[in-house]
Amino acid sequence: MSKKSDNTPLLKDVWESRDLIFSLAKSDFKAKYAGSVFGIIWAFVQPVITVLIYVIIFGMGLKMTPDSTEYPFLLYLIAGIVPWFFFVDAWQNASNCLVEYSYLVKKMVFKIQILPVVKVIASVFVHLFLVVIATVIFVVMGKMPGITMIQIIYYMFCEICLILSVSYMTASVTPYFKDMTQLIGVVTQLGMWVTPIMWDESFWPDWAMNIFRLNPMYYIVTGYRDCYMHGGWITDHIGTTIYFWSFVIILSLISGKIFREMKDYFADHL
Questions:
Q1: Of the candidates 210, 220, 70, 233, the residue with the CA atom closest to the CA atom of residue 149
Q2: Domain ranges across the chain
Q3: DSSP H or E stretch at residue 208
Q4: Quick check: 22 and 121 in contact, CB under 8 A?
Q5: Backbone angles phi, psi at 37, to 5 degrees
Q6: End-to-end CA, the chain
Q7: CA–CA gap between residue 113 and residue 218 (Å, rounded)
Q8: pLDDT score for 255
Q9: CA dist., res. 146 & res. 229, Å (int)
Q10: Of 152, 151, 182, 180, whose CA–CA distance to 166 is shortest?
Q11: Over the chain, what is the mean pLDDT?
Q12: What's the pLDDT at 5?
């Protein structure tokens, strides 16, 4: 790796390589579904099936209805699960980026620090489609999102920052620990149940919710629900906003340091 690449701040590297990042992201997105009969449709099959299963089990079977809103369970679930799908997909892909792009990692002139960003941007494309589909479902069911919907850009940016902050750490470990992908799968399965996606906050006592709010995805999920349903503004959550960004910044500093210290040895383990 060149001296410039070693010393240049990550944000500067990303900005200078923005055209390359978007080009690689588009290629990654196309390659993921190239050769399949239904192409990009597969990107939506799993989310749709997952939502249907949860609606049947929890909405129809257990007849769960959120106490904090007049919205039906389907819409409550969609507003919370759309950002979760993005988190899981982007984190898994970004964590595996060094292994997937091992031929680029072995090129000393390539800025491998942009690879997690490439994978996250590729996942953004699918996420944008899901956001549009979710919005259409809300409109069709007579629940048009209000002006607070404009905040979804902010919360999407928050989620991208969160994913990158954790992905640089896990991507650094993946070349040495090949089971990282499976471990992330277990973590995300558990994480879904400690995030208010299928359950309402009123189900839990205050002391339990204080613990659940430490999960940074709590901020994202409730933010998306504010956009689609509750009509809340960012300024209504100053405390959780400060906590979220403090968490992301600290984790980013730690992840960035780990990545910089380990990147010279990635090629030897791929």
A1: 233
A2: 3-269
A3: helix 206-212
A4: yes
A5: -65, -45
A6: 16
A7: 28
A8: 93
A9: 8
A10: 180
A11: 85
A12: 42
